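Posting this for the archive.
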Amino acid sequence: MPGRRRATMPDVAREAGVSTMTVSYTFSRPERVADATRRRVLDAASRLGYSGPDPSARSLRRGRTATLGVILGEHLTYAFDDPQATQFLAGISTVCVEHELGLTLIPITGGAQDATRVREAAVDAVVLWTTVDDDPVLDAVLQRGLPAVVHGAPERPGIGLVAIDDRAAARAVGTAAFTAARAPAVLSFPLDRARRPVLLYGADPDAASFGVTRHRLHGFADAAADLGLDWARIPVVVVARNDRAEAGAAALRLLDPGRRDVGTQGDGGPEPDGGPERDGGLRVDAVAAMSDEMALGVLEAAHSLGTAVPARLAVTGWDDSASAAAAGLTTVAHSLREQGELCARAVLEPCSATVRTAPSWRLVTRTSTRPPPPAGPRTPGSGG
């Protein structure tokens, strides 16, 4: 009946003619209650509509919730739409099963309630998906004093970190993409929480408040410098989401100078932010993308235009997904599932509250990139 008060343990005790402790033992330690008494308590509970102790109250008494919280740093659907996020969560879930824990997803939208949502979440420990350097959620996590670890970036005293060396990996895969290229480009994750699509030349990596984006831009710039390419002339197309269709639309504009109606958001494209354009457009011969999903969008765009890969266009991705392998994509191999497990173990089996773990990665070279040119013959006096 609407508005009816929920029956309590003392109510059941009075109805059954027993002590409150006997009711408590009936539900929590039934082996300590005589069969006849236990039946009398359960009958009384049934008449009153009492289903047992409140789980949240029980958690407060124990001082734990038996739940691990994952702060996504994205809208909730991201956990199910992004293939790498699902792998990461699968790794966390594996450890939760081992420890008989629940898993709570805590979505972050960039709104004023984010920090409050984190402070009020009924969890015993926290894993954070990569976020921006100044995210107030990080302060909220520290204020709670729970075991916490962040995946990817940023690094914050008092919070553990699990992250590959993004800069070194980007330098390696950038070299694979840019080798023998005259007009390379980068397809980038968002720079900050605004997620504004933009076309940049001479992109300043340190302007990115997402640490993962910043480190990878630094690595791509390192690769360009190693190959004698001018970073200031390399277009960096920033997309709003890690999305194949959005990346494909951006790639069409990169590959087809006359295609002005195509952009990353269907609204005319990423806003240009200065810099030279070649031959009146943005035709490029290499694209280093920050994910396999984006790289696959580039490959689809190239196929639609009849652009041969890798003869006319080299493409690289990041993550070594099954789809990347099937497409012959050169990429960075690292296990998001393993990293999810590492994050969960860092907070559930901690050696210290500030663990720092660097998982392994490797460059996987396939048919989407050109082989490096053969070294020329050495001449007298050429050195080394």
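The mean pLDDT is 85. The longest helix spans residues 83-98.
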